[in-house]
Amino acid sequence: MIDFVMISIIIPAWNEEKSLPRLLKCIKKQTYKNYEIIVADANSKDKTIGIARSYGCRIVKSKGSPAVGRNLGAKVAKGSILLFMDADALIDNNFLEKSIAEFEKRNLDVAGSGLCSSNDEIVDKIFIGIFNFWNCLAQYFFPTAFGPGIYCRRWLHQKVKGFDKVIKLNEDMDYVRRCGKLGKFRMLKNSKVIFSMRRFENDGRFKTGMKLLLSILYRLFFGEIRANIFNYKSRVKRQ
């Protein structure tokens, strides 16, 4: 095992007292132990910070969007490889071991993880399947990956100056696209992130799914989304 490579796991969060402990428990059970956890808190009003501290996480105050939180977390990171996660994601106990081994074996500089649904709803599995198929296809000409489970070497993150905080939607996809121009990008084959479907459940599956699919098409033809034309509200507050 190549556990000499230190990973900095960066998690933007805002009022995540219900979801965050589940993810942190998953991380603490990892077979790969050389990591640090950085929680970028956007001024939570609940127990998020206390929970993060109880798990030994480093905390940075972001008071902004997920992009701002990720950048602040990366700024204080000690690891040579950054792993960006979402607070409501889940991972298997060997996720880090398998994914970092593949990352290094394939000499990648930036990578995205495949997703699997957090529930057994057929429509959710179909949507996630479509998204995974697109990501695998686009990796060769239009690098695309979603927020939870993005790996990037720290030097490359610094080279592209991090996430673009001006982008209103899909700043994570823009990030890997820009990184893919300067480093080698691929989707990881051997590990997946359990993706929370809570937004689909709360805001409506069809409505949310269509917004995300249309946003991908918009990026293909018109570029990055710098105005809130899709009226998409992040799970982490934007200021």
Number of domains: 1
Q: How much helicity do the residues have?
A: 40-55%
CATH superfamily membership: Spore Coat Polysaccharide Biosynthesis Protein SpsA, Chain A
Q: What strand line-up does the widest sheet have?
A: 3-2-1-4-6-5-7
Report the radius of gyration as a whole number of Å: 16 Å
Notes on the structure:
There is one protein chain. Strands 3-2-1-4-6-5-7 form a seven-stranded mixed β-sheet, sandwiched between helices. It has one domain (7-222): Spore Coat Polysaccharide Biosynthesis Protein SpsA, Chain A (Alpha-Beta Complex). It has nine helices and seven strands; from the N terminus they run E-H-E-H-E-H-E-H-E-H-E-H-H-E-H-H. It is globular and about 40 Å long. It is an alpha/beta fold and 239 residues long.
Briefly characterize the structure:
The chain is built from 9 helices and 7 strands. It is α/β, with parallel strands linked by helices. Residues 235-239 have low confidence and may be disordered.
List the helices and strands and how they pair.
Elements (H helix, E strand, L loop, with lengths): L6 E7 L6 H9 L6 E7 L6 H7 L3 E4 L4 H11 L4 E4 L10 H11 L4 E8 L4 H17 L11 E4 H6 L11 H12 L2 E11 L2 H6 L1 H18 L17
Parallel strand pairs: 1-2, 1-4, 2-3, 5-7
Antiparallel strand pairs: 4-6, 5-6
